[in-house]
Amino acid sequence: MARATTYKEGYSKYNYSSNAYAYELAPKRYDYQEEEKRRERAEKARIKEEQERRQAAAHKFKLTVAVILVFFGCFAMMASYASVMQQRMVVNSLKDELAYIKNENISLQADISESVDLEYIKGEAIYRLGMTEPQPYQVVYIDIPKQSYNVQYASAEIVEDKGFTFEALLNLFNR
User: Fold this and answer.
1) Alpha-carbon gap, residue 124 to 150, rounded angstroms
2) DSSP output for 21-37
3) CB–CB of 38/23 below 8 Å?
4) Is 17 in contact with 2 (CB distance < 8 Å)?
5) 50 pLDDT band (50/70/90 cuts)?
């Protein structure tokens, strides 16, 4: 039988036996390139993991900011609706008060017109104040044209001074 030997790296003797070299028993060569590749892969994996972690953190931050903005937007919208509703309530109460005052004015005007007695006023004027009816020669009739001076200017528009505007400047140049 051939003897079993272990061969080391660099063994160059011819093998005269039928036994194969025991490569698995031989110490392995230290591969620096393989170690460098393994380190590079580990570094790339670490960098990729760090980037994914940063992206996840950025995504969480963006999501949190978006939720906060939506919350404050909803809060602002609710506050504006509440303000509008409060103003509507005030307007409705003022409208009710205005309607009540108008009704009261109408009833007071009706009371005044009912209490006005022309015969009583005529009697007071004649007996208490000593007034008399005008004599026919004291009555003067005048003709009023259909469009009188007073009526013309009573219906004229009131022009408000709005200050200096571009239209006022154009009117100035057109004159």
Assistant:
1) 33
2) P-TTTSPPPP-HHHHHH
3) no
4) yes
5) very high
* Alpha-carbon span 96 to 90, nearest angstrom: 10
pLDDT over 70 at 7, yes or no? no
Q: Do residues 22 and 7 lie in contact, with contact meaning Cβ atoms separated by under 8 Å?
A: yes
Q: Which tens digits make up the pLDDT trace of 109-158?
A: 988 888 888 888 899 999 999 998 889 888 998 887 777 565 555 555 55
Helix (H) or strand (E) holding 134: none
Distance between CA atoms of residues 8 and 27, nearest Å = 7
- Please count the other Cβ atoms lying within 10 Å of the Cβ belonging to residue 5: 14
What residues have CB less than 8 Å from 27, skipping those under 6 apart?
Answer: 8, 9
